[in-house]
UniProtKB/TrEMBL annotation:
This is F-box domain-containing protein. InterPro entries: LRR_dom_sf. Gene3D superfamilies: Ribonuclease Inhibitor (3.80.10.10).
Amino acid sequence: MCFNDDYWESNCLSTALSRTGEALLTLDIDLDSQYAFNWLSGLESIFPRVETLYLTGLPVRFSHDGNSADNAFPNLRKLGVTAKFDALDLERQPDGIPTLDWNMMLSIIRSSAPPHELTLTHDFGDCHIPREDIFLNPSALPFSLGELTKLTLRAGCLIAMAPLLRACPFLSTLSLFNVDLHGGMPLPDDNMITLPSLQSLNLSGSDIYNVLWHLQCPQLRHLTATSSHSLSPFDLQGIVSRSQCVLQTLDIHIPYYPWDLDKRGRSSHEEIWRNILPLLSCLETLTLRLGRGYITSILPQLTKPHAFPLLSSLIARFDENAFSNVLWPGAEATTRDDAENALERFFSACIYKADGGVLSTLDVQFGYSLYVQDQDQNDINLLRQNSRLLVQMHRWKGEGVHIRASHVKPTHGFHYSNEDLV
């Protein structure tokens, strides 16, 4: 909502606040609004009740708040700041000062309680901000980072944000979305970013494999990397080995990279997967998002009896190309029977435990490529109801495994629906 000095808007604000009683508030302000310079200076009376604060705007908007001395948030626990830029804004940027000065932007807050959650977002569109034009000095921030447990960075340069990461000793959850190196020189090996308390790491973006090689997380328990530009097995082995961590949850999309095989050789690729298995022996939940060529080329490397002795939940997601007969150059031609057999062996290895028990939950979803059309335009389900895999799923279900198996069926236009298989 937008507030200025008009009577009716002030009255609406007073009425809304009176209805909240003494509850803590969430304040979301767009500083690029036509009333931007009135918002903070006119709301000082509610700052003590603000628990969550979101601020969005051009960096210059933050520096033009003339009453920042009154901007105290004693109960602030969650802070999100978004810096907006476009090409014209960059052209107008004065020489000699950082394009993005996080300290200047965050100084709009005079003081606050130590936040528990912090989100910093670069909303620059297609504009590129060089590493040297991003500035952040954690020791000069208007609040302490001593209680920060959750940090989210959306876009930007990892190297520029390294001082912030190192200044958060109790950080337990880190999310990096489209964060990259921005062409900056990698950190030397003896200057890694060590996050001693980090337990959960969420990654997404085209450069996450480079970003990951700069992180060391000895307490890491949960790793999520689900974007289409995800981790190769070499990257996964790197972070787990380097951190010497004990993963409990892994949610990962690993596309099939034939150029990886060409560069390193198939035997090397298979050896990496064999080396990874012991590092994942404490997994309790495993989510695999599998693409074209992966099922019969890589999945067998994970198929060993009792490789995941503590696993209770296995989730498998197959995209629309997973069973495609049209493979990338360098991939081995396979049949759907080959894929079904590989899946059955992998699932079976995960389901049956050394102590005679079984896996608690198996959740499988197939992409819409399970359907093709015959010459009369009728849908044909290529994973037949009498297929060996589905027969086995029914058997596992009778043995006590909670199974959910479905596939995505095209309906009309670009719409799809889930249809149960078991």
